């Protein structure tokens, strides 16, 4: 009988613990999301996307690049759309060299733009030639 009471009490404590933690878990932001873009020419606008409002990432991270005309790589810059001036502005980091292939999301070298606000429209420009294909994790 004591085992049954102890098992019942444990079940109630476990259930209460789940009730306390479930709402907090559902409020956590989703993981980073990745979008594929085609670059624009130097200082130009390629395909665009909006910074995810539900992502846990604050930066626009270059996680893959493929220079369409070379197997070596290209320079890439993040560009944000400023609604106040209705213009595209290159992020402070400027152009970053990236070889063709994958890049680590944790390597700050490839954080093209930092501290980007949710729902901000962005694009990526390539310096040498375009169009190139890039993956931006944000």
Quick rundown:
By secondary structure, the protein is an alpha+beta fold. The protein has one helix spanning about 1-25, and strands at about 35-40, 50, 60-65, 75-80, 85-90, 95-100, 100, 110-115, 120-125, 135.
SS class: alpha+beta
Report how far the terminal alpha carbons are from each other: 56 Å
| Gyration radius from CA atoms, angstroms | 22 Å
Low-confidence stretches: 1-29
User: What is the number of helical segments per DSSP (H or I, 4+ residues)?
Assistant: 1
Sheet with most strands: 5 strands, antiparallel
β-sheet strand percentage? 25-35%
Helix content range of the residues, please? 10-25%
The helix/strand series, from N terminus to C terminus, equals: HEEEEEEEEEE
Shape: globular
Structural overview:
The structure is a single chain. The chain is of the alpha+beta class. The chain contains one helix and ten strands, in the order H-E-E-E-E-E-E-E-E-E-E. The strands form two sheets. Strands 1, 3, 7, 8 and 10 form a five-stranded antiparallel sheet that branches. Strands 2, 4, 5, 6 and 9 form a five-stranded antiparallel sheet that branches.
Key features of this structure:
globular; 1 helix; 35% strand; 138 residues; disordered N terminus; alpha+beta; 18% helix
């Amino acid at each position: 009988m004591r085992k049954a009471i102890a098992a019942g009490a444990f079940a109630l404590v476990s259930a209460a613990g789940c009730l306390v933690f479930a709402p907090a878990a559902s409020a956590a932001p989703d993981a980073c999301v990745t979008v594929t873009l085609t670059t624009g020419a130097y200082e130009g606008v390629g395909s665009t996307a909006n910074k995810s409002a539900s992502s846990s990432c604050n930066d626009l991270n270059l996680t893959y690049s493929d220079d369409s005309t070379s197997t070596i790589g290209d320079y890439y810059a993040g560009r944000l759309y400023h609604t106040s001036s209705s213009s595209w502005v290159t992020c402070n980091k400027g152009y970053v060299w990236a070889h063709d292939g994958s890049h680590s999301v944790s390597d700050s070298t490839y954080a093209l733009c930092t501290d980007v606000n949710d729902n901000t429209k962005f694009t990526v420009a390539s310096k040498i030639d375009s169009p190139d294909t890039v993956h931006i994790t944000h």
